[in-house]
Amino acid sequence: MIVEERCVKCVTPQATYDIDFNKDGVCELCTTTDSNLYSGLLGKNEEALNRYIEEIKEAGKGKDYDCLVGLSGGRDSSYLLYLLKEKHGLRCMAAYHRTPFTPDIIDENVRMLTKKLDVPLVQMNISIKKHRDFARKMILKWIEKEDKLYANIACAPCKQHNHDIYKVAKKHDIPYIVFGGNKLETYHMGAGQSKKNKVTKGREITLGQRFKQMLLVAGRGFSAITRRPELILDFPILFKASILHLSNRTPYLRVRYSKIKMLDYYYLAEYDEKAVIKFLSEIGWQLPDDCSSTWRADCSFNEIKNSIFKKTTGMTLTDSFLSNSIRAGVLTREEALRRAEVEGKISKDRIGHVCGILDIPTDAFI
Which domain holds residue 307? Predict the structure, then answer.
């Protein structure tokens, strides 16, 4: 068996394209002068978090709900809903987006969890068929041209949920939306993103800075269309996904829904993966049979992206996530190596499941 050589400090494969390694086998992401910023990725700020919780309660006075929680059925958003309801005593509604690639057991987890916590559930009305058809079109293009650009934009329809969750909040007069993402999965250095991207500390980014970011994204989008002219036919959905709805904090969403505030909970709270896993086990949350990791278990399409990024960049999203966890000090390299051996393996069953949904051959991914 060939053992994959990896960075001696993290688990970035040394075969990763566009990431340099020094003579000692250390990747540039671990040696850069900005690497100390990773220590702030999960830095907790309990004082600021408590202020937000009190502000959410105050804003919810006289209304039916204090906050709307974005729920995917994955581990982090599930634990978040529990914390907001049981630890902080907030009156929550959950907004759920089921995609073509949401496993049935994840859908069952969503309904089980909201029932046990007695939290009303609203399912966002985003077309599963349109999402599936667009993803199929992009993956067929990737099979033809092997350009990772197509893998990135295959998820464009999913960005619609960043807009629709605001619509749900407005409809139900909910003043706050709380999200459960964390920065370890936001910064995928080497896996589909440029190594030149900067990791920033947990400070608030101004609307002006986000507008500048939007212009940079727009520039990359137009460059992509220049390189792949056939994408002009999909310009409307790409424009929305890359400019208007790219994240829950785009200038468009911030301005259009200016009365609705939002909180990325884990950007301030301590993120304890062991506590998350313990909670999932106790409440009866189930892992899909073909999945070896609780991370990204809510989206089987992640397996296709792992395969594509491995082929086109030399590393998977899982490699990037585990390496970020090492740099942030929440995993030792030994722990990450053990997890990479299990969680980093491409699941043939999961690939087959997605290919069945898309009606495409599995040969390109296995």
Answer: 28-194+201-358
